[in-house]
Design goal:
heterodimer, A: mainly alpha, Methane Monooxygenase Hydroxylase, Chain G, domain 1, 7 helices, elongated, B: mainly alpha, two-stranded antiparallel sheet, 15 helices
């Protein structure tokens, strides 16, 4: 067979991007459970969660490598290649951060904390997760936009990005408050360091989600 | 059994083999996007492409063999019928060999270019470099560059128009339905025009250009309106939600037919041109300045293409259809429209343009309009290199074969 047609077409990188975003979403659910478990005393299944997250991270990494490997030099894409890769990088960093946090928690037993701090921590995790869950929605909405180039579809994506930004802002606020509370706690300095670092890590997740949103905004720019 | 008879039989076999090859490998040009977009099944594609290639070859295919034989080398070489006979056979054999090699190695080469290269090779051996009409050769080479570029521009514009007028709008499906007669009409207009300008039917009607344009316009409007009515009925009774893409899926069946028709009309000359020359020399013993191509030879070529499609096109379309999934219906339509229009216009001008190249140009056009997720431009570079290599490779093979034939049958 001599098919000039076949060699021109590459598999769509957006399919891979969506697949990667789904993995991120899956991971965020597990992460939430892992955190819940570790806040509650006597967590037995934390190791299991951590194992699963690391497994998912590996799979997502494979997807990332597959996407990169299937965009050879000289590929013309719908969007700027560097923006695309930057987006992918940010989306992947979300996962890396999740893994880092679980590693961090595994280093040390979570110190006993007052109930209100614990509930703040839970809330922080909760609202940090929602921008991540929206990443996959954003990707599939962006795919819709690239199919039709319609203004309506573009507005939907922009609205989603705006939403992620607002949520990131909320996370920031909560993070600040929580840090303040932590410093006023009368506990061991090492424990405070441990908790502050944990809160910062959790805040980073939403930062990366927001960065991804910014990259997406650049990709859909007219 | 005379030598001439043996040569004629060989020429028939080679001519058939060439047309078989066109059908087997190049069917992807017309049907790939429609099959990839699941507008039609592979079985339907094979059937439609086969029939339309026969129709295109027989009715629109050139009835005089012209540019390929004459343009590139001067008449002096052809003055001796015996030499011309062997030369045409050498060219046919050489391009058949080169095409076989290309198919075996999966090189994306064009049948059009290999036959032109082969003709050139034989001409150089028979009459030296002085017989090569460089300005004609240059014009032909330019047409290879111009036709993909033209197709590229056409598909780029067509896709932009579709985006601007239809798919980016709020009520995209309704707009697609309402604007469909214009797209259908445009395609039909060009087909009818090429029918009128190129076929004996057109000459028999002896229409002026103005009348031909008018007649094509009227027929195009009628057909467009009929198609529109059918489309509206279909959409009305369809249970699923219709989108612009799903409406274009239906239109795309039409454009795929359009490409198949253009391909039959254009590419049949590659296989049948040299055969017609041989046939003419053997039957009349002389050689005119132009050689008529009898209808039955065109039909023979068309049937050859159809058999190629039926025997091998299946596999090609299966491969292509599963791999080209990023080409949605609106994109496929733009590619098809550009390729077929380019080919029909070029063949009207008597230029040996390749359907493959026009189709590749069309894909690049949509890619540049940011219509395709990812296009590999480096392989496009590779394809261009093979376009260039084809001519000298076929020429060289033809030279060697011609020398051999002279040794075998020469005086």
């Amino acid at each position: 067979m001599r098919l000039p047609f076949l060699t021109i077409f590459l598999s769509s990188p957006f399919d891979g991007l969506l697949e990667h975003a789904e993995k991120v979403k899956e991971c965020s659910l597990l992460f939430q459970q892992a955190i819940e478990c570790s806040i509650a005393s006597q967590c037995r299944s934390f190791g299991e969660f951590r194992e699963q997250v690391s497994q998912l991270e590996h799979e997502a990494d494979a997807i990332k490598r597959r996407i990169r490997g299937h965009i050879p030099k000289g590929t013309l894409m719908m969007v700027d290649k560097f923006q695309f890769f930057n987006y992918l990088k940010e989306q992947d960093k979300v996962l890396d951060t999740v893994e880092d946090i679980l590693d961090w928690i595994s280093f040390k037993e979570l110190p006993a904390i007052p109930n209100d701090v614990a509930s703040d921590l839970r809330q922080l995790v909760d609202i940090s997760m929602s921008p991540i869950e929206e990443l996959s929605l954003m990707v599939s909405e962006a795919i819709d936009y690239f199919k039709t180039f319609s203004n309506k579809a573009r507005e939907v994506v922009k609205e989603r990005i705006r939403g992620i930004r607002i949520k990131e802002h909320n996370v920031d606020q909560l993070e600040k408050n929580l840090k303040q509370k932590l410093f006023s706690l009368k506990i061991d300095a090492v424990d405070i360091f441990f908790l502050i670092r944990l809160v910062e890590y959790i805040g980073n997740i939403a930062d990366h989600a927001e960065n991804a949103g910014d990259m997406m905004r650049a990709m859909i720019a007219q | 059994m005379s030598i001439e008879f043996i040569i004629l039989i060989t020429a028939y076999a080679c001519g058939f083999y060439m047309s078989w090859n066109i059908g087997a490998n190049d069917v992807a040009n017309s049907m790939a996007s429609a099959v990839g977009a699941k507008a039609i099944t592979i079985r339907q594609a094979v059937f439609i492409a086969g029939i339309l290639n026969i129709v295109g070859a027989t009715f629109i295919g050139s009835h005089v063999t012209n540019t390929i034989r004459k343009g590139i080398i001067s008449n002096e070489v052809m003055s001796d019928p015996h030499i011309a006979l062997l030369g045409a056979l050498a060219a046919l054999l050489a391009s058949a060999l080169w095409i076989t090699f290309a198919t075996w190695k999966s090189l994306p080469v064009s049948t059009t270019h290999s036959i032109v290269g082969a003709m050139l090779g034989f001409g150089v051996v028979a009459g030296g470099f002085s017989v090569v009409k460089w300005e004609k050769l240059f014009a032909v080479v330019m047409s290879w560059i111009i036709s993909p570029v033209f197709s590229l521009a056409l598909s780029f514009i067509m896709f932009k128009i579709i985006v601007r007028l239809i798919i980016s709008r709020r009520n995209a499906s309704l707009r697609a339905l309402n604007l469909s007669p214009y797209f259908i009409g445009l395609a039909v207009f060009i087909v009818i025009l090429s029918f009128l300008f190129k076929t004996p039917l057109g000459t028999r009607l002896s229409l002026t250009t103005c009348h031909a344009l008018l007649l094509s316009f009227i027929i195009a409007v009628c057909i467009a309106l009929i198609c529109w009515w059918f489309l509206t009925q279909k959409v009305k009774h369809s249970k699923i939600m219709e989108t612009a893409e799903s409406i274009f899926r239906r239109i795309q069946i039409g454009t795929s037919c359009y490409v198949a028709l253009a391909q039959g009309a254009n590419d049949v000359a590659n296989a049948i041109g040299p055969l017609a020359v041989i046939y003419f020399i053997v039957t009349t013993g002389t050689l005119g300045t132009q050689v008529p191509v009898p209808n039955f030879l065109l039909l023979f070529g068309g049937v050859g293409i159809a058999i190629g499609i039926a025997m091998w096109g299946y596999r090609v379309m299966e491969t292509v259809g599963t791999r080209i999934t990023t080409l949605s219906n609106t994109r496929g339509f733009s590619v098809d429209f550009a390729a077929a229009t380019t080919v029909l216009i070029a063949s009207k001008l008597g230029l040996p343009v390749s359907t493959t190249h026009a189709a590749v140009g069309g894909v690049i056009g949509v890619g540049l309009a940011r219509g395709i997720d990812a296009v590999n431009f480096r392989t496009i570079g590779m394809i261009i290199i093979y376009w260039i290599i084809t001519v000298p490779a076929a020429a060289l093979t033809s030279m060697i074969l011609f020398k051999l034939l002279i040794l075998l049958f020469g005086r």
